[in-house]
Specification:
The protein is an alpha+beta fold and 615 residues long. The chain is built from 21 helices and 18 strands. A hairpin with a 7-residue loop joins strand 16 and strand 17.
Length: 615
């Protein structure tokens, strides 16, 4: 073998070793610099990245009384990759679950959007008993730890529909919003939903060191790299907690709603939906689920249904106030206008029907609640000669009505605000055929019946508009957010109604005052307070008529506008008017001078059967 061959072999061997060294160096570089899998494994073995959940903002009433606060709670969390070797039988026994349930939960914790390397909730809102047992034996449950949280607490068992409740975030929401992940809590309804971003605060992160036994050894670098949670902002509501509680007390055993508004600001003073429930029932883990199921399937009472915001009722005779104002604005009637009534509307053979009373002027028509009078008024508005086509006259009436709030979403700061219904020309063309209907065809609209519907919040807003003599502020239940007590500027904007004739309002207010002093609303009369009100009996094709009463007080510089709607209660003057009178007196004087009326209202049970869960 010559030197040349030896030299070639030397180069080949050297090249081979060089390539091997390069491969090793490249692999080491990749593992240590580029691929962080082992680094993550090491960190996951020694570090825990804990989410620090912020304290949810408190909610206060208009007088600074606490309506919602927080209590400490704990979730059991798991990192599936670290849970191998955990004493699963002991854990199942403490949590009172089966091994199959354990496997199902562990599988869920390992799948997207969760990860085997990340913590996720295994058991939420532990009971004190379970929490204590886990703390003693946590070292036996590798990969598991306890996460501090808070849950809502309600010092008074009221205002459930108004305040709303907090629940677990949906998968869809967690996927769309990077702030949330499965297991987080979010406002589901009421104020909790509307003001979620303000209430939730901002999460923080803690880096905790643990030993091989999963015991916490302290903060990494003494918390140098931790981020603090920022508490949610406090909400200062417009609700008067005493009035809210009193309204719920009066509405016990009845289906319906009470809504009260401060006319000068649009602030909601109370919002009662009955039957209701104790909001504390929807707090907790397993107890919450059981309670929610019972409430959800209570088909007799529908306690989860917010009647104040989403129940669309015919307003009945309370709607006549709007017709009276529109007709005066159009110079069609005045204070002294009289229409015939022979126990009903004569042009239609006595339909709509009316009760016996002498012919009367405009204020008297409100006090006696004459159906015939407002059938004529409706016809006068829609059949004006300046509108060659009837459809144009009808649209004029409809637009004027809508300026008071009906058939619009008022834009309140509570969710699920329904618009109600003022039927359109297109709707009636479809029902009767184009050109085949006239004012007398739909004359029941003039007395608040037919397809006309409003939600109780809209009814209260109409009364507030009349109390203000032609304008309203968007109803809202939060008057300040955070320490600065900021308020959305949209709640400071005046909305003017179609009717700006002040004499028209004076005439209507005279009728409303007469309704309370000597008419159908006498049950709401108060000794030293001038109350302006209007009764209504809303026809119900499915049973007994509904009772309605709308009012405001005092007449000058009114402080409260209120409506009470009670399902299947008959005449508005019998049930709704007394309740409204009691509510007004309670709010303005902080006392009640008619204990006999109060006792009768509280003890009256107009619902067959009983409510679930003690409500």
């Amino acid at each position: 073998m010559n030197n040349s061959n030896l030299s070639d072999r030397k180069f080949i061997i050297s090249a081979f070793f060089i390539v091997v060294v390069i491969i090793y160096i490249s692999r080491l570089f990749y593992l240590q610099i580029i691929d962080d899998q082992y680094k993550l494994d090491a960190r996951n073995n020694a570090f825990r990245y804990r989410t620090e959940y912020p304290v949810r903002g408190y909610i206060y009433d208009r007088n600074g009384k606490l309506m919602v606060y927080n209590e400490p709670s704990y979730d059991l969390i798991v990192t599936p990759k670290l849970a191998k070797g955990a004493d699963t039988l002991a854990l199942c026994k403490i949590l009172e679950i089966t091994r199959d349930e354990y496997i199902r939960r562990m599988k869920k914790a390992s799948q997207a959007p969760n990860s085997p390397r990340k913590e996720s909730v295994f058991e939420k809102q532990l009971s004190p008993k379970i929490y204590a047992a886990l703390q003693e034996k946590l070292y036996r449950f590798k990969g598991f730890d306890v996460q501090a949280r808070t849950v809502r607490k309600y010092p008074r068992p009221i205002a459930a529909h108004l305040l709303g409740y907090v629940g677990e975030v949906s998968k869809e929401k967690a996927a769309k919003d990077p702030y949330y992940r499965e297991g987080d809590y979010i406002g589901i309804s009421g104020i909790e939903r509307s003001y979620e971003e303000e209430l939730r605060g901002k999460k923080g992160t803690q880096i905790v060191m643990v030993d091989v036994h999963n015991k916490t050894k302290g903060r990494f670098m003494d918390g140098l790299y931790d981020t603090l949670a920022i508490p949610g902002k406090a909400l200062f509501s417009s609700i008067d907690i005493e009035l809210q509680e009193y309204g719920e007390k009066l509405m016990a055993g009845k289906k319906g709603a009470i809504v009260a508004i401060e006319p000068s600001t649009g602030e909601i003073l109370c919002l009662v939906s009955s039957p209701g429930y104790d909001p504390n029932l929807l707090v907790g883990g397993k107890e919450r689920s059981r309670n929610y199921t019972k409430l959800y399937y209570d088909s007799l009472n529908l306690p989860l249904f917010n009647r104040a915001l989403t129940a669309m009722y015919p307003p009945g005779s309370t709607f006549k106030l709007i017709d009276a104002l529109i007709a005066q604005q159009d110079d069609l009637i005045n204070r002294h206008t009289v229409y015939p009534c022979h126990n009903g509307y004569p042009p239609m053979g006595g339909h709509p029907a009316c009760h016996s009373h002498p012919s009367t002027d405009l204020p008297g028509s409100i006090a006696t609640s004459c159906n015939s009078y407002y059938s004529y008024v409706f016809r006068e508005i829609t059949d004006q000669k300046k509108y060659p086509k009837f459809e144009d006259g009808y649209n004029h009436w409809r637009d004027a009505v809508r300026s008071f709030g009906p058939n619009t979403k008022l834009g309140t700061d509570l969710p699920y605000d329904k618009p109600g219904n003022v039927p359109s020309v297109e709707y009636y063309n479809k029902i009767f055929g184009k050109g085949h209907w006239r004012s007398n065809t739909v004359v029941s609209l003039g007395i608040g019946q037919a397809e006309l519907t409003l939600v109780p919040l809209q009814m209260a807003n109409v009364v507030a508009s009349i109390a203000n003599r032609g304008y309203f502020y968007t109803p809202h239940c939060i008057k300040g957010v955070g320490v600065e007590k900021s308020l959305d500027k949209r709640f400071k904007e005046k909305h003017f109604t179609y009717v700006q004739n002040q004499l028209a309002y004076d005439n209507v207010l005279d009728g409303m005052q007469s309704c309370v002093d000597a008419g159908t609303g006498r049950a709401s009369k108060l000794k030293d307070i001038i109350v302006c009100g209007k009764t209504g009996t809303a026809e119900n094709p499915h049973g007994k008529d509904h009772a309605v009463f709308s009012a405001f007080a005092p007449r000058e510089k009114p402080k409260i506008a209120i409506v009470c709607f009670i399902e299947n209660a008959g005449f508005g003057g019998t049930w709704s008017a007394p309740i409204v009178g009691l509510m007004i007196e309670k709010y303005l004087t902080r006392k009640v001078t008619r204990p006999d009326v109060e006792k009768r209202m509280i003890e009256a049970n107009l619902i067959k059967g009983t409510n679930l869960l003690g409500r």
